[in-house]
Amino acid sequence: MHSWINKLPDHQAVISGATESWDKAQLLQKIEKFSTALLNRKDPQAPVGILMDNSPEWIAVDLATQALNLTLIPLPGFFSPEQWVHTIRTSGIQAIFCANEDVARNLGFVFKNNVVGSIGLYESASSITGISAQVQLSHVQKITFTSGTTSAPKGVCLSTQQQWQVAEALETTLRPLGIKKHLNLLPLAVLLENIAGVYTALLCGAENICLPLASVGLKGASQFDAQACLNAIEEHQAESVILLPQMLQAITLSCAKNDSRLKSLKFVAVGGAKTPEALIVQAREKGIPAYEGYGLSECSSVVALNTPLANKSNSVGKALPNRKIRIAVDGEIEISGQGFTHYLGEPIVQDEWLQTGDIGHLDDEGYLFIDGRKKNILITSFGRNVSPEWPESLLLGTNIIAQAVVMGDGQAYLSALLVPISPAISKEQLELAISQVNQELPDYARIGAWFIADEALTPANGLATPNGRPKREAILKKYQSKLLSLYASPDLTN
Known about the structure:
By secondary structure, the protein is α/β, with parallel strands linked by helices. Helix content is 29%, strand content 23%. The chain folds into three domains: 4-158, Rossmann fold (3-Layer(aba) Sandwich), CATH 3.40.50; 161-333 and 351-374, Rossmann fold (3-Layer(aba) Sandwich), CATH 3.40.50.12780; 377-488, ANL, C-terminal domain (GMP Synthetase, Chain A, domain 3). The strands form eight sheets. The chain has a five-stranded mixed sheet, sandwiched between helices. It has a five-stranded mixed sheet with strand order 14-15-16-17-18. Mean pLDDT is 91; it is low at 130-135.
């Protein structure tokens, strides 16, 4: 078993849930029970899935599969049933850990093999012939499926070593902070929380506080209760948390300056999507120690990170000790140090350097700045290239806009779809905010027209990924007629 075991204190809680806490010995006992259940399957070497809310048991299942060198496939709760089915079929899952028997049965896992606590291990009625027959998974411990622009998520294959290397680099980077309590706020099926949260806390000898997501404010695919989150931070005296940008925005707007509920926090990592610089500033003014980072599933999550000891405004920090970053001639960010990239069902990419698809730049001190996505670049009818993330970041920093998507490829000027932070925000307020943003932009990148979205962009309606990135193709398709009329109309707002 991995060396994290040696980092854990004896006779202290290392993982706590809603109803119980485990010390080192109790955690090892749970891992042993889940390992026994896995070995008792009809095909003990087949990939296994997990579909359940955050809990200490989730962590124990993950660690048990590592101890047995088995492939684990987390099924995110925010996936649609169609995405679950796609994930199961392509990865060859033949058994699944699940707390809800009906859910397991509906997915084809009808035989309850074993129960550990409240968690059942369910097996399929028949052998599933999936991608496992075509691809050797002997060195793949985890397949993380990322939700893209279609209903067919892509599987990134990771070894145990690849995952723990990131956690080790994070532990080295964060060691001076002396963090002893980490509160899991993101789903454990999300690699960022799984590795940067759980594994890093284990290496730090810190306690993972792992509660049902609803109790820490995350409800469903996209609803977030900032007050519930703040209360959970205070109740459990959390010293570190990981937030998505939209969660940080909600908390910042919901708390008072130097809110007493924030006193225990030493470090708040923000990632998953680009975070507006203004939001980081506003959060810190409220007393939230927010620091932006950058990562990809292909790199086992975190690649670069700001910290209290090494921080630069508007950057995503310096590369972790196990990473090297370079910028290609066309501005694309390339990363090495992860080993070869392996997508499920595809040949292993035999290249030391991973092309990220992101564009950015490095300064003289090694801080990385993200300028946008390569494929998102808009080219105006005047031939100007604009990364939409640039004006979008400024719009989100106005404090009255929750979501913004900038469009205008091939047009004379850019337009923006806006989701106000509240229905009470008036058209005049939005107009003023856009005017102020435009003053910070060159003429070719300014917003010439805008309209309010029919609804928020969420994973549930297919217009956003779980980490908050807009699904641009889906948005363009939904609002195609609106955009056509917008550019055809002399009225620049609607």
